[in-house]
Design a protein that fits this description.
Oligomer: single chain
Distance between the termini: 15 Å
CATH superfamily of the largest domain: Enolase-like C-terminal domain
Largest sheet: 7 strands, parallel
Bound molecules: 2-succinylbenzoate, magnesium ion
CATH class of the largest domain: Alpha Beta
Order of helices and strands: EEEHHHEEHEHEHEHEHEHEHEEEHE
Length: about 375
């Protein structure tokens, strides 16, 4: 393929419910969508999964815009590319900024899959005909509100519940959720809110039979996670600090985690995700697909990713209606009463784009040729 056009669109879209983590609260999302076209007129769509502010990792929508226009697009546009797999290799000069690069890379995979008339999930080598879904529940104003939300999601059929924690909203909250829901698959995500000095406090979570504790320590740390894992019975799952197959390999080698959350953007797109997945499979480390409050486009990519063999645990891939009153794809992503999604059979994303919706939400647009 040879890309003749890259179009960047920023959409602004309100969340149905605010989402609060240890690093902040989001009520409206700004999302950077990437549309690519090749010299045969084939189209592909991707989503940059960074936040509005550099609080989850160093990227945010404006940095991604600059990285794509200034460094990625000039290297990719007009270049003869053997396949989508080769796209990431064109931008290795750029350090970091994997979400920006990954949005473009994923768009190229989608283009290639569409061109071949194949579902994206099959094109990347997926085999699962049904993926299991979990939900991530943000920090709430009160315990009662949290318990109400957990109840709603359990009744909707979701296969595991993840609770966001931070200092002051952790052990006692999880204790109460566990008391009210003794049997549910339950986990907690701290988004780097603790340090190793909190190890004795975090060890109090061991009595609740959590599936895992996600990213308790700093976003760029492996060593302290390894030390913490030695002091906890609860398996540690890494999110923020796994950005490449090398990180995954090293984290596993020093036993910094027992589970890895793979996010498409965080590892630079499908190529990076497949590499991390490969390292984990070889080491017998279970993985699951993380989420970044994506629009339907990123959500459809996450569904495709979740069909890879090693995605043995329910991911943070849930129904569009939990986030958006009207998604940018049609039909919206729906989860059945068993908490599963059947990956679509159509080419590429397998979901239609709601261009009227996308246009009405777009407040910044740039076409690169
Ligand atoms: O750490 O997994 C995370 C949302 C934004 C930033 C980071 C995270 C999350 C989530 C939500 O947990 C997952 C989702 O429902 O998209
Ligand atoms: Mg996380």
């Amino acid at each position: 393929m040879r890309l003749s056009r890259i179009s960047l669109r920023q959409i602004r879209i309100p969340l149905v419910l605010p989402f609060e983590t240890s690093f902040g609260k989001t009520t409206h999302r700004r999302i950077l969508l990437v549309e690519v076209e090749d010299s045969d007129g084939a189209i592909g769509w991707g989503e940059v999964t960074c936040g509005e502010r550099p609080f989850y990792n160093e990227e945010w929508v404006d940095s991604a815009w600059l990285v794509l226009t200034g460094f990625a697009a000039p290297r990719v546009l007009g270049t003869q590319i053997s396949s989508a797999r080769a796209v990431a290799g064109l931008t290795t000069a750029v350090r970091g900024h994997r979400m920006a690069l990954g949005g473009l890379e994923a768009a190229c995979w989608e283009l290639e899959a569409r061109k071949l008339g194949r579902p994206l999930w099959r094109h990347i080598g997926g085999t699962r005909r049904r993926i299991e879904c979990g939900v991530s529940i943000g920090i709430q104003a009160s315990l009662d509100e949290l318990l109400e939300l957990v109840d709603r999601e359990v009744r909707a059929g979701y296969r595991r519940i993840k609770i966001k924690i931070k200092p002051g909203w952790d052990v006692e909250v999880i204790r109460e959720v566990r008391r009210c829901f003794p049997k549910i698959p339950l986990m907690a995500d701290a988004n780097s809110a603790y340090t190793l000095a909190d190890a004795p406090h975090l060890a109090a979570l061991d009595e609740f039979g959590l599936m895992m504790l996600e990213q308790p320590l700093p976003h760029d740390d492996l060593i302290d996670h390894a030390e913490l894992q030695r002091r906890l019975r609860t398996p540690i799952c890494l999110d923020e600090c796994i950005r490449s197959a090398r990180h995954a390999e090293q984290a596993i080698r020093i036993q910094a985690c027992q589970v890895i959350n793979i996010k498409l953007g965080r590892v630079g797109g499908f190529g990076g995700a497949m590499e991390v997945h490969g390292v984990c499979r070889e080491a017998g480390i279970p993985v699951w697909c993380g989420g970044m409050l994506e629009s339907g486009i990123g959500r459809a990519h996450n569904i495709a990713l979740s069909t890879l063999e090693g995605f043995v645990l329910p991911g943070d891939v849930s129904a569009s209606k939990r986030y958006w009153s009207r998604d940018v794809i049609s039909p919206a992503v729906e989860v059945d009463s068993c908490g599963t999604i059947v990956p679509p059979g159509g080419p590429g994303l397998g979901y239609g784009l709601d261009m009227e919706r996308i246009d009405s939400l777009t407040d910044r647009f740039q076409e690169l040729t």
